[in-house]
Amino acid sequence: MARRCELTGKGVQAGNNVSHAKNRTRRRFLPNVQEVRLMSESLGRSFNMKVSAAALRSVEHNGGLDKFLLKSRDTSLSLQARRVKRDIQKAAASA
After folding, report:
1. CA atoms of 85 and 79, how far apart (whole Å)
2. Strands 45-52, 33-40: parallel, antiparallel or unpaired by DSSP?
3. Which tens digit of pLDDT belongs to each residue from 34-58?
4. pTM beyond 0.90, yes or no
5. β-sheet bridge partners, residue 26
6. What is the DSSP-derived secondary structure letter of residue 77?
7. By three-state DSSP, how is residue 73 classified?
8. Distance between CA 64 and CA 60 in Å, rounded?
């Protein structure tokens, strides 16, 4: 199971544990990724996505999933998020 945010692309980073004696051992910094259900107002349905806590705050700050996806670049989005974005754009164009 990949630890990657579907909205921002945030993933695992690598670094070092540094002891008092300056011994370095490799470690992983894991993102705070949660399985959440996000509602799309224009499509009238919800989607299950793996989203980081920071991305969830950004979605709320931007006014919902629809506005967040319309503002975001396709390169950072997952395949599912790009499909939802495309459906939102089609619904906005037809309305």
Report:
1. 10
2. antiparallel
3. 999 999 999 999 999 999 999 999 9
4. no
5. 16
6. S
7. coil
8. 5
